Each structure stands twice: as structure tokens, then as C-alpha cells.
Amino acid sequence: MKPIIFALPGNETLTDSLAQSVDAEIGQAEIRSFPDGETYIRVASDVKNRRCILVCSLDRPDSKLLPLYFLSQTIKNLGGRCTCLVAPYLAYMRQDKQFKPGEGVTSKYFAALVSQFARSLITVDPHLHRHPSLAEIYSVPTEIVHAAAHISNWIKSNIDQPVLIGPDSESEQWVAEVARDAGAPFIILEKTRRGDRDVEVSVPQVETYKDHTPVLVDDIISTARTMIETVGHLERAGMKAPVCIGVHAVFAGDAYNELQDAGTKQIVTCNTIPHPSNQIGLEKLYVDFIQNTNFY
Amino acid sequence: MKPIIFALPGNETLTDSLAQSVDAEIGQAEIRSFPDGETYIRVASDVKNRRCILVCSLDRPDSKLLPLYFLSQTIKNLGGRCTCLVAPYLAYMRQDKQFKPGEGVTSKYFAALVSQFARSLITVDPHLHRHPSLAEIYSVPTEIVHAAAHISNWIKSNIDQPVLIGPDSESEQWVAEVARDAGAPFIILEKTRRGDRDVEVSVPQVETYKDHTPVLVDDIISTARTMIETVGHLERAGMKAPVCIGVHAVFAGDAYNELQDAGTKQIVTCNTIPHPSNQIGLEKLYVDFIQNTNFY
Prior knowledge:
- Chains A, B: Keywords: ATP-binding, Kinase, Nucleotide biosynthesis, Nucleotide-binding, Transferase.
- The structure is a homodimer.
- Chain A is of the alpha/beta class.
- Helices cover 28% and strands 26% of the residues of chain A.
- Chain A has eight helices and 16 strands.
- A six-stranded parallel sheet of chain A has the order 2-1-5-6-7-8, with helices on both faces. A six-stranded parallel sheet of chain A has the order 10-9-13-14-15-16, sandwiched between helices. Chain A has a two-stranded antiparallel ribbon with strand order 3-4.
- Chain A is globular, with a radius of gyration of 21 Å.
């Protein structure tokens, strides 16, 4: 029998296109707020013994967790066979240790909670730092997929004479990979520190790439500080207005407008968090997970 | 050793006054949002082997649950002896059965979650309907306290010639109790149903109480529809502008202004949910719970 895919509020577009890609049924659920701010939930589809997939990107996670938990619990109570979670963006990956005494290690706490109501989990390029893998914090099976190949393809098809830009040496590995797959050159900005607040940034080989379109790529664009700074360095070096690409369009506060105003040619993101800048669809990355959730 | 009382954001006023009433230490915790909407948490007090009380009213619960869970988990990890919860207002008491097929019974799901991170729970007049007690849904010890005596005292001290008003026969028991303790008379409005949408409401003994101040009392003022309607009935009967008293100041949307504009003399609430209308302090109701949390 076909799996049923349920969209948590805000994830309807991705869910519709996933259901088409994998020939799944779209789950009918009513999820709304009462006037007093509590969540009402009703599952109208017959889920008994069916494989159920929940689609919920976990940016701005605090208000999303209860509706997700309630939907999962309701499906279980109605006899659904699993509640596997497609969470294209995974929250609470940053606080993965006690940096100061007394801090809560929220990455662990959050994972423990989500592991209670997701039978398995798939996500795109999570911000893994000190945790070597999701298995260290999640007690359910998890799968990580990568956006890099889709980004390279988008660059190949949409940008004439691209040159990829790494804002610092840390980004080199990731930028080099995307550049290679896109068949494009790349350069890494060079920083010379003269003092605590005096850092000079130079763009190497700037003459060679004067007619190229610079392309900045990062995993999460949140406050966009690094990207805005990098755009400034390129402008001062006399390069063309760059295209900025992010996997996850978090865009905290007014970051999107600020990045636009900084002198970018275009801002492009993957569709892991619904946003007007979404142009790179990652549906194909979830197909195996959805079709093979029998195992979980 | 003194217990430590921690305020979740928004509960600082009640927490400060509780700490004075019970001679407790106020817990130092930093609970704030990152620009991307995630919650940061750090406990600065030394909680090791100490009794820890968390104060968190649970109106608008969806965005409050993760911070509460994170604080509880952090305290546990730092060796705190208990994380007992003072939740003057308890959420998710309404959906206590499947009214329609497929509905989630959120009262159970919510209770199961809170029971994981509160070692015990105290609340004021929860909206118990079909669940005979909190013990049916909460797996930790719970205690219910009642605001009625505090409301009666407030009426006695603040209103000259009060007459309590019950909007319908269902409210009679509760209104009669508050009236008796306040040493005041009460009347119950009489409804005569003439058709589906044609209900006539009359105010009995209206002549006797023309010079009294009508006092309406309800447990939760959410959309305030019933109270606004009742205020209208009293006005049409030629009574004075009433005082409206609620235990829980939920005030969904613009309900507070609407109730003011409906022709009330004054709106007064208990301090279970922080609101400008709070005038009746319930601190005394929690003292035993806080002082005797050794048991939990």
C-alpha cells in the first residue's frame, strides 16, 4: 500500500511535490490553533497499518514541536505503522557541548525528545560540529543527505562563467567540491590579521576572474554576517556582483533584505526551509527514505 | 537547605513574591533566544542536591514547552534534586476526548510530556471536565488548589453591596460558594429557549438588586463571549455596570478590550497568568507545595 505523507503547517509545497515524486498519498490532517493558542489536531485519512511520513522543517523550532508531537501521537493512536520524519532543516545542532559552566546541551535534549516521536529521521546537511554523527544524540535511525550535487548542477545550468568563492580557509574543502562538480574554478579569500580588530582581506588572482560571476556558497544563511562581509570584500576588489547560494534559508530577522542590499546579484537557496529565494529542489534526496520506510 | 525557585520567562513577578513568602533562593538562569529562534539556556546557580522549583504558567503553551523542558533537563544534569513545577495555569485541558473520529486527545499527550520533566506539579483550578482528576493523565504527583476563597475575600474588601451573578444554572454551585464566603447574595440568570437562535434571558429579582454592584465570576476568561453577553443582559435589565472577575486571564486576541468596551465597571483577575488586570494574589496557595517538595 502507498505510504501517506503528512505536511506540518508550512510544509505543504514540499509535501505535494514529494507525494508526486514517490507516488504517495497526501495525508489529510487538520492542524490549527484555538483562540487561546492551543493546537487542535485531527487526522482525517485512514492511517491504520499504513506507513506514515511527516514532513516538518525544524527552523524556528520552539513553536513547531508540540504540533509535530501531537500529530505523531495521534497517528500512533489511530494505528499508523510509523511516523518517520522528513526534517530538511534540523534545529538545535549548535549547542553541542557546555561552552560555559551551567549551560544546557540542547542538541542532546532536543534529539532525545524528537527520538520519542519520530521512528526515523532524514535531514539535509545538518550542522554537525562536535557530534561526529547524529547517531550520537538521536536514538532512532537517522539519515543525512547532501545538497552539494544539486547546487553544482544549478550553478552549471544557470551561471555563465562562474568562479566559486570561499570566505576563508575553513570553507576550502566544501567550496572545492562544489566547484569541481560544477566544472568551475574557485578562489579562497586570504586574511591577514594585523591586530585584534584589524584584518585585511585580499582576493587572490582577482585579475584572472574580473569577468567571472563570483558565487558564494554556505550551508546555513542565518544572520548572513559572513556573506555580507564577503560580498563587501569582492566589491572592493573590483569583482562583479556575486550570486549567494545557501542550503538552508534561515534568514534571521531582516537578514535577507540586508544581504540583498549588500550588493548581491541574486540570492538562491535550496527548498529545505520555505522561502521566496528557494530555487534548488531537493525532492530526489528523500525518495529512497520514503519508499523504504518499511524497515522502520 | 533553602529550595531554589526559577522563573521561566514572564513569570518573574510571581517568582520573586513566592521566594519572599517561602524564604527560598531565586534561581539564576539565562534563558534567551538566538537570532534564528532557538533557545539558549544556562543555569548560574549551584543546584547540586538542591530542591528546585520551576515557575511557568502554561497559557500559550506551544512556544513555552521547549524552554521549560530544557531548563528542567539542564538542572537534572547539574545534579538538582527535583524539578517541581508551579504552573498556575495549566494548558491542554479542553481536548479530553475524541469528539470527532481522528482527533488527537491532546490533554493526554501534553500531560505525558510534562510528566517527563516535572517531578511534581501544582496548579490552580484546572479545567477538569471528563477527566475526573489530573492523576488520570499525569503520571507524576499533582496538586490542585482553588482560588475561590481569595476571590471571596477580594469581593468583601473591595466591593460595596455586591450581588454575585451566575450566567446560567451550570454556574450555580460555584457562584453560590463564592457568594456565601463573601457574605453576599447571588442570582442566576434565567434562560427561556424559544427556538434554535431565540433565547430570552431574564434577571430575577432585578428590583431588589438595582443598587447593588453585580459581580460576574468565571474560571477562565478566554474569548470572553459569555461574560460580554451576560454584561449585556444586566445592562438591558437596568442594573449597574458589573465587576468581572476571572481566575485565569487568558484573554484571547482582543478579548480584554472588548470586555472593557461591553460596559464593565472593572475587570479583575488572579495572578495565575501575568496581565494588567491581576489584582488577586494567590501566592499563599503554593507555599506548602514549595516547602514540602522533599517528598517528591
